[in-house]
Write a structure and sequence with these properties.
Elements: E1 8-9, E2 16-17, E3 19-28, E4 37-46, E5 52-60, E6 64-66, E7 72-74, E8 78-82
Antiparallel strand pairs: 1-2, 3-4, 4-5, 5-8, 6-7
Length: 107
């Protein structure tokens, strides 16, 4: 069995880990199409805890950039994992003040 080329988030381990590819479904452009792309949908298993997840890997001919030397290089494919990594917004946390008896107002 092959490993996914990139570590992705595991919902049980709560970190990015290696995942083993169990099954892949591939879709891609045809050879004569104007725009070349591919999409792999993987069923994967965490190599650490054996939790199963789904990963969509996508790449296309527009995924490139220039490095610091001005040389064109291909960017890595995009990986989306399901279930996704939770997003925690800092603004959602707030502290409430509490008034205590026998404690000065300003400490």
């Amino acid at each position: 069995m092959d490993l996914l080329k990139k570590k992705v988030y595991c919902s049980k381990c709560k970190i990015e880990t290696n995942h083993i590819i169990l099954l892949t479904h591939e879709e891609k452009s045809e050879g004569l199409d104007d725009f070349q792309w591919y999409e792999h949908k993987h069923i994967v298993r965490c190599a650490g805890c054996d939790t199963t997840a789904f990963v969509k890997e996508y790449g296309d001919e527009d995924m490139w950039s220039y490095n610091e030397k001005g040389v064109r290089q291909w960017d890595p494919p995009e990986y989306n994992i399901f279930p996704p990594k939770p997003v925690i917004e800092v603004s959602s946390f707030s502290l409430k003040s509490t008034n205590y008896k026998n404690v000065p107002h300003v400490i």
